[in-house]
Amino acid sequence: MLLGTYNSQETFKQQSDLDLAEAKPIDAAEKLERKPSVDELDPLAPPPPPQWTTSNDSNNDSEKPPQNTDIYGLSDLHSKDSQQKYIEVLDKNYRPKARTMPSWLPKAASGNDWGSSGITQLTNESQTILANNNEVALHTSEPDPDSLLILTPLKNNAKHLARYFALIDKLKYPRNKISIAFLVSDSTDRTQQMLIESRQWYQEKAPVEMRFKRFDIYRQDFFYALPRNQRHLREKQQERRIMMARARNYLWTRALESEQWVLWIDGDLEFYPPNIVRDLMAYDKDVIVPNCLVRRKADKDRWKHSVYDRNAWQETQRSLAMIKKLKETDFLVEGYKSLKTHRKYLDNFSKNETLVPLDGVGGTFTLVKAHVHRSGVGFPAWLFQHQVETEGFAKLAKAHGYGVFGLPFYYIRHVVG
To answer: Where is the composition biased (Polar residues) (predicted)?
Structure first.
């Protein structure tokens, strides 16, 4: 159900080490070469999350908009000139060409490119269908150009929400193009109440340049309880991931409207670059993910990074040979020494492999063209080619002919745990 009274949170007043006011646009060519290194991540430990105030006192200064209404440097993103620069950065004009033919029609519908679509001859019925499509083209609603829907399913995530919104606020992307939606499931902490407070602040009290196009919160409980100490047990993964798939499917089917892009973000990420949305969009792929790391103390003065999201992988000859021997009911899951799948993870690629095709993805930070979901590609809550949830999503997307890619040397960071 949609919780209809929601509205957002108090501002984070502390200055960030990644202040958007200092971020400068870069051109498309430079953007595609931009690969934040692990070394860049080391000094970027995020500041302590701001204190969450729940006071109902109307005189509480912490609930008032800041005097400096552009503390995140967002005002320049909403001028006419800067928006044009932003389109240039993407190196793509994503605006729909409805006067010729809506984007969801086959290429052959234009009547000029039969060969490339694989159609050599149309029946009379097919010609009539295409003619009817042409008639309705000018009346067809197309996705809002460059619009972005951020989706995050949450369960007992209260302790991470301050950092979650702090990172969102650093994104260098026009806020009036961003909608955001959450699904709260089986939560027993203050996650839901904090989201309600957040929506109230962002949508009613924040400066206009910080308001989202939409801010929706949904509640759907599945009554699935798994003790924390059993969360990563291999024998629990299939049922756990199936519940996560159900949550994701509930969220995107309820929240997706006219947006052109969908961005799945984990609720407990620790760091990602402010330019990441535009960086990923610049590759113009159906599905694309960065490399999600986790860092732990190696010794007193050093951090050690390792890949967190083992759900992003590429099949190999050995893995395909292993799959051929499986039963249809066998479930594959990554990250367990007791199950060697022989797949290639994002930390197994060479330095010159900056963009690689994948067969599985995780959900920590996954950018998807909305038409992928609209075509029926969701998150399997059943075994599809031995996978469920996000990895099943990647397999299903590829089965539909969509491209799935990863960036081995574009790093984001997840909290430990």
So the answer is: 1-17, 52-70
